[in-house]
Amino acid sequence: MEKIEALSALDAKRHAEAQMARAANCPPWRHAVFGLLMGGLVASPAFEIKIRFAVLAVLLGCIPLIMHSDRKRMGMFVNGYRRGKTRLVALGVLIVELALYFGSVRFALSLNDRTTPLLLGLAAIVIGIGGSLIWQRVFVRELSA
């Protein structure tokens, strides 16, 4: 009886993971929103302090909206720093985006260059979208395995 119960539990787990993998396929706008959030953060030092804080407030305010949207669309919100290979993808994206942000801060605040942070922000959008797409592929692959 124990073996049958164990096999049944494993089958139920596989079935639930397969359902999560199907639900985890995000629409293109979801990846674009993540990229825009990253780009906005990286570009924010290009603006005077009041505008910078307003941009940061809007970006932070978008996070609960994204979480709510994911829960409504998929029935769940998956933390990007979850255990597994997805964490490596998330950390890689984080390292690159932080490097762009620190470069943006240096150019804007130390060198008084307001153009380079905007260009770095554009790069951050592209990297954010690409990172989001890669993260999703890895997540679905992990669940489908």
Describe this structure as you would to a colleague:
- There is one protein chain.
- The protein is an all-alpha fold.
- The chain contains five helices and no strands.
- It is elongated, with a radius of gyration of 19 Å.
- The relative contact order is 0.18.
Unreliable spans are none
For the sheet with most strands, the description reads: none
Query: What is the number of E strands?
Result: 0
How much helicity do the residues have? over 70%
Estimated share of beta-strand residues: under 5%
What structural class is derived from the secondary structure elements?
A: mainly alpha
Shape: elongated
Task: Look at the structure and give the mean pLDDT.
Answer: 90
Briefly summarize what is shown.
The protein has about 140 residues and is mostly helical.
Keywords:
0% strand; 5 helices; elongated; single chain
Chain-wise SSE layout:
Layout: H1 2-23, H2 28-43, H3 49-74, H4 85-110, H5 115-144
Helix pairs in contact: 1-5, 2-3, 2-4, 2-5, 4-5
